[in-house]
Amino acid sequence: MVPSISIFLLAVFIAMYELPSLLQQESRKDLAVFVIFLAAGMTLSILQVLRISIPNPIVVITFIFEPLAHVIDRVLGIRR
Fold it and tell me: What is the pTM of this model?
C-alpha cells in the first residue's frame, strides 16, 4: 500500500511542477498529452507494484493485424 501511495504522491508532485507552465502557455494539446501519459504511467506503475497482471499489448496488435495480413496475402497471391 505504501509504494502505491508513494507513486501517486510522486505523480501529484510532478503535475504540480509541470502544470503551471503548461497552463500559462495555454497549449491545450500539450496539456492533454501530458495528463494522459502521466495518468497512464501512474496507473501502470501502481498495477505493477500491486502485482496485478498487465496484459501484453502484442496480443492485441496480433489480434488486429493478423486477419489484415491474410487479406493482403490473398490479394497479392502470397502463400504461407
Answer: 0.70
